[in-house]
Every structure is written in structure tokens, then in C-alpha cells.
Amino acid sequence: MKENIKLGLILLLITGLAGFLLGGAYEVTKAPIAEKIASDKQAAMKEILPTADKFDTADVKLNDKVTEVNVGMKGTEIAGYAIKVTPKGYGGPIEIMVGISNDGKVTGIEILTHTETPGLGANAPKPEFSDQYKNKPTKDKLEVVKVAPSKENQIQAITGATITSKAVTLGANDAIDFYNSSLKGDKK
């Protein structure tokens, strides 16, 4: 019985120390991680809306598909919007930033985070796929095709990753719908 109590106390001491060290590591890394996330977000917005000088969080009513809207400003004029959406992909949520200019064109997409299958859906951030969204009009829904696109609103799927391709396109369409219903024509 004494041996069990001794082993239990040793185990308690070890787990308590491990918990304390993990808590300390979390506190030390929390601020740098938050800074990195903010820096990556700024870089993504600048990439998808290069005409904007600065970005401000928009004060708009969000819906269940749009998680964040940022207004891209060029001087005192609105250059466009960086809209964050999170559709569900094959491996889980895909966090996407979609740029839309005031002239009604998708200026690009940037995939911020994903858990898609390596070698398949994880190829979505690569320019071969993501650059297809540049300069797409916002008047029609985008659609995924398995062959070379023949229409302006078509996106060619990643081979072997149709679910991911459709999820990214759904996210882009969610951003386009939000732009058309809530932001279009909103100029300063």
C-alpha cells in the first residue's frame, strides 16, 4: 500500500511539472503565434488585392459562411474587399481569403489554412490551381470542371481532389454572393 502511494505521488509530481512546463511554453509562444497569423493575413490580403494601400476590418453584418470582411483602401477610395470564408473540404475546414475589386472581379484567392490530403487537395494553394480565380467575374457563379475550362466562370479541378476543388470554389462563390448582396456599390 505504501509503495502505491509513493508511486502515485511521484506520478502526480511528474504530471504537475509537465503541466506547468506546457503552460509556460504556451504563454511564451502565444504572442509570436498571434503576430505570425496577423502577418500572414496581411500578406494574403495584399496578395489578393494588390491595389490596396491598407486594410480595415469592415463593420458589416456577417453570415454563417463569411467569417470576416476587410476593406482594402487606396488612399480614401475603396479598392475592394478581402473576404474570409471557411468552407468544408475533404479533410476539414479550408480557410480562404477571397479578393474582390470594386469593378466586380475576383482579384484572387489565398488559402490560409487547410487539412487536405498531402499530394492531392493540399495542392490547392499552388498557383496552378489558385491562380485560376484571378479576374473571374462576379456576375455568375463559378463552377468546377474536370476538363480545360471553356467558359469564363469555370475552374479546372485538381486531379484526384475534386472535393477540395469544389470546396474552394464554394468558398469563392460564398464570398461573391456576400459581395453582390452586401457590399456591391458601397463606395466612400
Strand content: 15-25%
Would you list the SSEs in sequence order as H and E? HEEEEEHEEEH
Q: Percent range for helical residues?
A: 25-40%
Low-confidence stretches: none
What best-fitting shape do the alpha-carbon axes yield? Answer: elongated
What distance lies between the first and last C-alpha atoms, to the nearest angstrom?
77 Å
Instruction: State the total count of DSSP E strands.
Output: 8
Q: Average the pLDDT over all residues and give the rounded result.
A: 92
Order of strands, widest sheet: 1-2-3-4-5-6
Integer count of domains: 1
Query: How would a crystallographer describe the biggest sheet?
Result: 6 strands, antiparallel
Rg from alpha-carbon coordinates: 22 Å
**Class from helix and strand fractions:** alpha+beta
Tally the helices: what do you get? 3
What does this structure look like?
The structure is a single chain. The chain is an alpha+beta fold. It has one domain. About 40% of the residues lie in helices and about 25% in strands. It is built from three helices and eight strands, in the order αβββββαβββα. It has helices spanning about 1-50, 125-130, 160-185; strands spanning about 55, 65-75, 75-85, 95-100, 105-115, 135, 145, 155. The strands form two sheets. The chain has a six-stranded antiparallel sheet with strand order 1-2-3-4-5-6. It has a two-stranded parallel ribbon with strand order 7-8. The protein is elongated. The model has no long low-confidence stretch (mean pLDDT about 90).
